Amino acid sequence: xxxxxxxxxxxxxxxxxxxxxxxxxxxxxxxxxxxxxxxxxxxxxxxxxxxxxxxxxxxxxxxxxxxxxxxxxxxxxxxxxxxxxxxxxxxxxxxxxxxxxxxxxxxxxxxxxxxxxxxxxxxxxxxxxxxxxxxxxxxxxxxxxxxxxxxxxxxxxxxxxxxxxxxxxxxxxxxxxxxxxxxxxxxxxxxxxxxxxxxx
Length: 200
Ligand code: GDP
Prior knowledge:
With 200 residues, this protein is α/β, with parallel strands linked by helices. It is built from six helices and seven strands; from the N terminus they run E-E-H-H-E-E-H-E-H-E-H-E-H. It has helices at 37-45, 49-55, 87-103, 122-133, 150-166, 185-198, and strands at 8-13, 26-31, 63-69, 72-76, 107-115, 138-143, 173-176. It has a seven-stranded mixed sheet with strand order 1-3-4-2-5-6-7, sandwiched between helices. Helix 1 (37-45) packs antiparallel against helix 2 (49-55). The longest helix has 17 residues, at 87-103. The protein binds guanosine-5'-diphosphate (GDP). Residues 31, 33-39, 79, 143-144, 146-147, 178-180 line the site of guanosine-5'-diphosphate (GDP).
């Protein structure tokens, strides 16, 4: 059982190409900038340190690795949709990200965070498409669920699940999540444990 509360920053890499080929299981976190990725990682690990690490200027466009168990890792991917990045750089990074998601053998799953008020935007769909091509399991977090009342939040969750099923993405799982209301933290931890343990 990984100890998320003992998560420790390990390394930042500018490009996935520098990664050792063999490593224990890892789970990547991705989402548009401002989707709540840092807050979710903090809530999961009970540490404010992790988000600060990933938001340190210069690290925001890197892969940040956190050890959560013996040879088990969470990987914070750069928030996409970042502004003021030259197009060529952005395309270059997208290629790196695609290469990482499609080729990383130790990757067991992708947690994709989306603001519950703006689910399934273009780039989210793009990532879902990549993940499917790579047969990579995906778990969607509908973040900031406290911004909606319970009824509309559940309706959005059901709508997202229906839309995924329509697209033949029935294997993708989804849940609501909120840091201040503490919705879904245990559900997320259970999902991560299942992925990490299944690969044992
Ligand atoms: P990141 O860019 O994806 O890492 O997003 P952050 O974690 O920095 O969050 C972006 C903004 O959304 C911040 O102002 C957070 O305080 C806010 N935020 C994050 N999670 C929640 C949440 O569950 N509920 C609410 N109401 N705000 C949140």
